[in-house]
Write a structure and sequence with these properties.
single chain, 309 residues, mainly alpha, olfactory receptor activity, transducer, transmembrane helix
Length: 309
């Protein structure tokens, strides 16, 4: 029996020997991380520096890009270190820090997408009242709530998880997550499991139901409105919908994998899908919004042109 005083590290068994391509894998993942940081930082700076982009939609986008940096930083540095290591271990403190980052990132992403759908709903369905409803104070409150609730929920979860006694220290993944850690506990974890399920499903399904409601309202206005209204809705809602679908795909697999036995799924596929929501979303969002949002695209083009000149 291994008790909590003896568990100073966890072993990550999701890694395997990559042989001669170890350094190739390292540099590919490093290049992905550099691209994620570079593209998200670029768009954050573009939004912050240009006063023409100081509008609610772009403020929420800025929060979304900050979250992509936050989530990817919770994974990639650890991933890069582990790829070059012969022994894939992580200290308990670093493991719990990664748990905090990964789970709060997912919750912030869903809540951020929900307030963005609310912003689109007001802009398309209530254009005359938009400036009255979406004030600077309200924007600040919405963004603050988007970050505060997940962080507070994770502090509570980790305060319940950290005192546990563990009967093992093997995590069958390439990074730490709550369910993998809790499964190693010797003591009763009913309260933690119930709290985890409640926090996860209330955040995800609450956000998705709200998004569904706002888009039903937007669709009704589009069908009854003019071609101009329809075109505006399509241009601003397409990247948002694509982002929701992309993230939901990755997050749903990760939730299923953490709750059910997925040993019949090939190991490589399990690893890829478990990393999907932490790697593809931070890549996908800056590219999608950078290309689709006309104002951002034009400012980025002018920056590139001026740099070449």
């Amino acid at each position: 029996m291994i008790n909590t005083t003896q568990v100073s590290f966890f072993t990550l068994t999701g890694y395997f020997d990559t042989g001669r391509v170890t350094y190739l894998c390292f540099f590919v993942i490093l290049a992905l991380y550099i691209f994620i940081v570079g593209s998200n930082v670029l768009l954050i700076v573009v939004i912050c520096v240009n006063r023409s982009l100081h509008e609610p939609m772009y403020m929420f986008l800025c929060s979304l890009f900050v979250n992509e940096l936050y989530g990817s930083t919770g994974l990639f540095p650890s991933l890069l270190v582990q790829i070059l290591s012969d022994v894939h271990t992580v200290s308990t403190s670093i493991c719990f820090l990664q748990v905090f980052c990964v789970h709060s990132y997912g919750a912030v992403e869903y809540l951020n997408l929900a307030i963005m759908s609310y912003d689109r709903y007001l802009a398309i369905c209530c254009p005359l009242q938009y400036n009255t409803h979406m004030t600077s104070k309200k924007i600040a409150i919405l963004i603050a709530a988007t970050w505060f609730y997940p962080c507070f929920a994770m502090v509570v979860l980790l305060s319940l998880t950290s005192p546990l006694q563990f009967c093992g220290n093997t995590i069958y993944k390439v990074y730490c997550d709550t369910h993998s850690v809790v499964k190693l506990a010797c003591s009763d974890t009913t309260v933690i499991n119930l709290y985890g399920l409640l926090a996860t499903f209330s955040t995800i399904f609450g956000a998705l139901l709200f998004i569904l409601y706002t888009y039903m309202k937007i669709l009704l206005v589009c069908f009854s409105g003019s071609d101009q209204t329809r075109q505006k809705a399509i241009s601003t809602c397409t990247p948002h919908l694509a982002s929701i679908l992309n993230f939901s795909f990755g997050a749903s697999f990760e939730i299923l994998q953490s709750r059910f036995n997925m040993k019949n799924v090939p190991n490589m596929l399990r690893i890829f899908l478990s990393l999907y929501f932490l790697t593809c979303q931070p890549l996908f969002n800056p590219v999608m919004y950078g290309l689709k949002m006309t104002k951002i695209r034009n400012i980025c083009k002018s920056l590139i042109t001026n740099t070449h000149l």
